[in-house]
């Protein structure tokens, strides 16, 4: 219990004077306590008792390889362990909740914050994604916070801010990029998409972004880093492309997977507890953060 309290203390300190983020952290803490209360009511083992194999030690990085090489290595390991091959993973939330028992929440956050990660010995890894961000950004943020679960459990809690240059954020960003857009897979997709074309267009980048469920900018950056497009083209695409207008013209809509606020496992526990009459209707309203009386 003490360790979990420390985790949220770490997050609150890191939030500085950002009132909106502090409010979201407090809300996340509340629902993590609800999770533990449900475990107690239903007499369910805590995470490390029933899912210990899912919580390996933090991965490490040394100077023997470049950051890119390390992230290719670890992203391949994770894709292999999750049985993903090199296919796109628009359903990443379901995979991480079902296979690693991560607790993934979607709440509104300050625009400058993409996600929050926290870890406790009782509940395991908990992730909060900014529900205000567009779908492609949310998927990338989820892979980014997954990286914190793999590399940063000892830090107990991290707030991922857009544009941060901190080392742990750089590692998470490179992991997310490699995990969501595997190098060989995107090369194959790229050459198939641009075959018999004189040059790569913004429509090609938008198509590939939709195929892998990421944002237009994330795809342009990935193609540049793999040297599939030159730096000048990537910068031009990012700086000059009006993505919403391009979507309207091409009809290429952004994939939008459901981002229900609570993990599926949480909902199952709430429903089970209510059906067994272990919680009242009033408690059900509190646990689901909805007004049942209006």
Low-confidence stretches: 1-5
- Beta fraction of the residues? 5-15%
Largest beta sheet: strand ordering: 1-3-2-4
Helix content: 55-70%
Class by helix and strand content? alpha+beta
Dominant shape: globular
As a whole number of angstroms, the C-alpha radius of gyration is 20 Å
Averaged pLDDT: 90
Number of strands: 4
- The SSE string, one letter per element, is HHHHHEEEHEHHHHHHHH
Number of continuous helical runs? 14
Question: Major β-sheet, in short?
Answer: 4 strands, mixed
In whole angstroms, the N-to-C terminal distance is: 36 Å
Task: Please tag this protein with its features.
294 residues, 4-stranded mixed beta sheet, 56% helix
Topology overview:
Layout: H1 2-14, H2 19-41, H3 47-50, H4 67-81, H5 92-100, E1 103-107, E2 113-120, E3 124-130, H6 135-151, E4 157-161, H7 167-180, H8 183-194, H9 202-212, H10 216-225, H11 231-240, H12 243-250, H13 264-275, H14 281-288
Parallel strand pairs: 1-3
Antiparallel strand pairs: 2-3, 2-4
Helix pairs in contact: 2-13, 4-7, 6-7, 9-10, 10-11, 13-14
What does this structure look like?
By secondary structure, this protein is an alpha+beta fold. It has 14 helices and four strands. It has helices spanning 2-14, 19-41, 47-50, 67-81, 92-100, 135-151, 167-180, 183-194, 202-212, 216-225, 231-240, 243-250, 264-275, 281-288, and strands at residues 103-107, 113-120, 124-130, 157-161. The protein has a four-stranded mixed sheet with strand order 1-3-2-4, with helices on both faces. Strand 2 and strand 3 form a beta hairpin. Helix 6 (135-151) packs across helix 7 (167-180) and helix 9 packs across helix 10 (216-225).
């Amino acid at each position: 219990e003490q360790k979990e309290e420390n985790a949220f203390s770490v997050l609150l300190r890191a939030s500085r004077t950002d009132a909106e983020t502090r409010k979201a952290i407090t809300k996340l803490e509340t629902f993590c306590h609800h999770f533990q209360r449900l475990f107690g009511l239903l007499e369910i083992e805590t995470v490390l008792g029933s899912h210990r194999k899912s919580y390996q030690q933090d991965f490490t990085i040394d100077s023997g390889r470049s950051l890119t090489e390390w992230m290719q290595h670890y992203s391949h390991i994770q894709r292999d362990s999750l049985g993903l091959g090199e296919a796109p993973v628009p359903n990443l939330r379901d995979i991480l909740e079902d296979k690693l028992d991560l607790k993934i929440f979607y709440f509104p956050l300050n625009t400058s914050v993409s996600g929050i990660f926290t870890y406790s010995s009782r509940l395991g890894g908990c992730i909060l994604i900014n529900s205000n961000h567009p779908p492609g950004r949310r998927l990338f943020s989820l892979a980014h916070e997954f990286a914190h679960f793999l590399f940063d459990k000892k830090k107990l809690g991290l707030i991922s801010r857009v544009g941060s240059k901190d080392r742990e954020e750089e590692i998470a960003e490179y992991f997310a990029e490699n995990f969501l857009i595997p190098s060989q897979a995107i090369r194959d997709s790229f050459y198939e998409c641009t075959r018999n074309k004189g040059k790569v267009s913004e429509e090609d980048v938008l198509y590939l972004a939709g195929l892998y469920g990421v944002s237009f900018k994330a795809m342009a950056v990935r193609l540049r880093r793999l040297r599939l497009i030159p730096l000048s083209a990537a910068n031009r695409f990012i700086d000059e492309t009006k993505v919403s207008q391009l979507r309207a013209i091409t009809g290429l809509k952004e994939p939008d997977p459901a981002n229900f606020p609570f993990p599926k496992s949480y909902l199952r526990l709430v429903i089970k507890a209510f059906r067994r009459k272990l919680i009242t209707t009033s408690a059900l309203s509190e646990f689901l953060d909805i007004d049942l009386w209006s």
